[in-house]
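Researcher: Please predict.
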Amino acid sequence: MGRRTDLALSRESIARAALAIFDEDGAAAVTTRNIATRLGVRSPSLYNHVTSKDEILDAVTELIDREIDNSPLADPDLHRGLAGFARSYRLAFRRHPEALTVIALRAIETDVALSGYDTTLGALQRAGWSPAAALEVMAALEYIVLGSALIPFTRGFVRTPGDYAGRYPALARSLAEAELDAVDDRGFELALGLFLDGLIDRGPAS
């Protein structure tokens, strides 16, 4: 079978190939050569559709951001709206944790991402938060969402509970009694709930 024609390429098909490499092989494997190989073309063909690797990463960011459901932010119940948005935001990046390791360090440039921030900040401002205070709330929410997506808490404990018992008995007891498969999700929900409860109870601050 011959190579695919350049006509089969597009900015989106290149981005989807890059995202698949992120998911399957990790961030270090996302090179223009590997993207081209996955698409069955030569590397120079990519540059008929994208200008640089940075543009490819922007396109990957757009793909992931399109998985985020912003519609809960229209809910007049701000607690419920922010919670629904935060869950969708976290789920989108939990599907692609390797991509997040790169995206989190890049400038926010894509229209999809900027529109998402604008929608969230607009919801907070309509609820009474000043523009400056709304930005702080957005930052705090993002710490919870992206922190939990990027570094699952339980991933750090690779031994069995009994292996910790001698020197770290409290840790061993907790690991033995917890439903480890549920800890990360429950921890996220706990942090999100406490944050939103405190936010709503405090009310808008100037």
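Model: The domain at 68-202 is CATH 1.10.357.10 (Tetracycline Repressor; domain 2).
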